Fold Arginine ABC transporter ATP-binding protein.
Amino acid sequence: ASRISIRNLSKFYKDFLALDRISLDIARGEKIVVLGPSGSGKSTLIRCLNRIEPHDSGVLMIDGKIIDGKTDLTELRGTVGMVFQNYNLFPHLSAVDNCTLAPRLVRGTAREAADAAARRYLEQVGIAEQADKYPIQLSGGQQQRVAIARALCMNPEIILFDEPTAALDPEAISGIVSIMDDLAAQEITTVCVTHEMGFARRIADRIVFMDRGAILEVAPPEDFFTSP
Ligand code: ADP
Ligand code: ADP
């Protein structure tokens, strides 16, 4: 069974058709990269996967369960984590406190347990030493690692990435590449919107190419990047 199953998904903003009958199946632990021109619907597609944007028609299923207006959004957003271009960390909280906030408030995890888990994930993404620092004291690459650790603290099955490397230098991007490989090894599914072809090529199992709200092509990177 697919981790994510998308059938004829459509989404309007008022009269504007942003997603036009999208269909796609994504497997457990698969790394999907969504490419396409600006305005083609890439962000909208991934935002539908955790219902930040509700779709208007079609069927979305995660682990065989239909996602619709009756879905418990708190539970869904635990299952489907999200990492943003600008990290979206709370500036007044240390790295570890950014990570423990949702487990404590949403799941009711005790502070000590949440703290221990957060430090484990910060170590997994290579920034154990920065755990008690504040976002302003961290580089962009380190902040993005905190954002990934924060998502991991909710034990997600899927992590959505919206332009995660847009603000990062090549070295920091390599760090994110190896973290995403690590996530796949743990069977966490990743769906990543990016403009960066090199990054796409390095991480994708399959590339989804969108244009004007539709999927034009789905192919592994070796097929995608060697057009005649
Ligand atoms: P991409 O991520 O490929 O750049 P988006 O999914 O952000 O594309 O946007 C697709 C189209 O939908 C664009 O034309 C954009 O202007 C429009 N759009 C996105 N969000 C909204 C919104 N909240 N309200 C109205 N139009 C929107
Ligand atoms: P991206 O290309 O990364 O999706 P955008 O600049 O297109 O970023 O969108 C940033 C925010 O503005 C998003 O929340 C999106 O939903 C909203 N937005 C985009 N286009 C429109 C639009 N035409 N009308 C209203 N909101 C929009």
Remarks:
- Residues 170-185 form the longest helix (16 residues).
